[in-house]
Specification:
GO molecular function: acyl-CoA dehydrogenase activity; flavin adenine dinucleotide binding; oxidoreductase activity, acting on paired donors, with incorporation or reduction of molecular oxygen, reduced flavin or flavoprotein as one donor, and incorporation of one atom of oxygen
Pfam family, one: Acyl-CoA_dh_2
Organism: Corticibacter populi
Structural class: alpha+beta
Oligomer: single chain
CATH class of the largest domain: Mainly Alpha
Order of helices and strands: HHHHHHHEEEEEEEHHHHH
Number of helices: 12
InterPro entries: Acyl-CoA_dehydrogenase, Acyl-CoA_DH_C, Acyl-CoA_Oxase/DH_mid-dom_sf, AcylCo_DH-like_C, AcylCoA_DH/ox_N_sf, AcylCoA_DH/oxidase_NM_dom_sf
Largest sheet: 4 strands, antiparallel
Protein name: Monooxygenase
Length: about 425
């Protein structure tokens, strides 16, 4: 059943402008309204899950039932045909509820982009049907082993018995919740991208991620022991979709923007309700203290800017998507759109990261010592933001933007992590 067909009008719907800015499209409110009660339920138990380390299996099941993972698919395939700005608007709202859930869906959303930009053929048709049927994909690309940069220790080999996958992955975000795991493996001198059934014989996924933030994303270890692989599970080409690096990083930025929105809302509510004051404060009520209100305003401004930048960069990704799916588009238009998408995301990384990391610390300036209690959950904002921001460090993004601005050098379109070759 298409959960969006009844809620997305063919003409633009009226929408409510809020302090977070105008929505990314005229129909966005109609798209978001059915999902907001689910987002609210997810947020209601976010602190409890964080304290108790309770993985969001149920929460992700709610989103699957509401068809959020296939929102980018056309309506005749069970989706809403959402644009990338609309998708990232939803991710910001979901990130305000719980960024663990956003991160758990990141690999699936990226694989969806892979399929949407793939030319017609058996592989693309097969996986488009799988996504339309509700299949969920988790991550299995990164490794923590000794493989050199540009290679993988995980291997895809051929024998008389067929294709076999062997190896171990880390940062397998979302795989414990998924039906399939998107894996990158060494195939001779080439890289193979393939989908592996989560519950196939020889597949083991372990919840051993021990980071101080984003603890509920199931970003631990996946092991593959002589797993039988069907040829249709292997992508025919090792090329990724053209805006892949920018897309995956922008999911992180949407998470940061969501954190900003959540902590700003949380802070305002706590200041409004707070009845304990300092003798050296400026008012009889905290809610009337101008210095406290200044902190609240600064934090809200940071959240507003982070969300605005995220949606602006999402529009650049949309232009790249359209350039590659428009049959009339030429190579020059595609190259320009790809470069601009990567540069716009790179320019946003350091700004959004700084804004939200600062805001997640500054919120405590407006609250008392009781706000540091573990059970209050306010520390999770900084822990999650700091963990998210540690992926693909911002210092390299700043250098890439500078190199483009000065020398016209486009940012790289593929990243690898591994041991130095020297």
């Amino acid at each position: 059943m298409n959960h969006f067909a009844r809620t997305i009008p063919s003409t633009p719907a009226a929408h409510t402008h809020t302090a977070w800015g105008a929505p990314p499209s005229g129909r966005y409110e109609a798209l978001a309204q059915p999902l907001r009660p689910i987002f609210a339920r997810i947020r209601a138990t976010a602190v409890e899950r964080d304290v108790q380390r309770h993985l969001p299996h149920e929460e992700i099941a709610w989103l699957r039932e509401a068809a959020l993972p296939r929102v980018r698919l056309p309506q005749d395939q069970g989706g809403a045909g959402a644009s990338l700005p609309e998708l990232f608007g939803l991710l910001i709202e979901l990130g305000a509820a719980d960024t663990n859930v956003v991160n758990a869906l990141r690999a699936h959303l990226g694989f969806t982009e892979e399929i949407l930009t793939t030319e017609a053929g058996p592989w693309g048709s097969h996986w488009r049907a799988q996504l339309a049927a509700g299949a969920l994909v988790g991550a299995g690309l990164s490794e923590a082993g000794s493989a050199k940069v540009g290679t993988f220790a995980t291997t895809l080999t051929r024998s008389d018995q067929g294709l076999r996958l062997n190896g171990q992955k880390f940062y397998t975000t979302g795989s414990l919740f998924a039906d399939w795991i998107a894996v990158a493996a060494q195939d001779g001198d080439d890289t193979a991208y393939l989908q592996v059934p989560r519950h196939a014989p020889g597949v083991e996924v372990v919840d051993d991620w021990d980071g101080f933030g984003q603890a509920l994303t199931a970003s631990g270890t996946a092991r593959f022991h002589d797993v039988a692989i069907e040829p249709l599970w292997v992508k025919p080409s090792s090329a990724r979709f053209p805006y892949a690096v920018a897309f995956y990083q922008l999911v992180h930025l949407a998470s940061l923007a969501g954190i900003g929105r959540a902590l700003a809302t949380d802070l305002a509510s706590r200041v409004q309700q707070r009845d304990r004051v300092y003798s050296h404060g400026n008012a009889a009520r905290v809610a009337e203290d101008p210095q406290i209100l200044q902190v609240v305003g600064r934090v809200h401004g940071a959240a507003y800017a982070a969300g605005t930048l995220t949606l602006q960069a999402a529009a650049a990704l949309q232009r790249s998507f359209e350039a590659h799916t428009d049959p009339q588009s030429d190579q020059a238009r595609r190259l320009l759109a790809d470069t601009e998408a990567h540069v716009e995301v790179d320019q946003s990384v350091s700004v959004i990261t700084r804004l939200i990391l600062d805001a997640s610390t500054e919120l405590f300036d407006a609250l008392g010592a009781s706000a540091t209690l573990r059970t209050e959950g306010l520390d999770r904002y900084w822990r999650n933001a700091r963990t998210i921001a540690s992926h693909n460090p911002r210092i390299y993004r700043e250098r890439q933007v500078g190199n483009f601005a000065v020398n016209g050098a486009p940012p790289p379109t593929i990243y690898r992590v591994g041991r130095s070759g020297s």
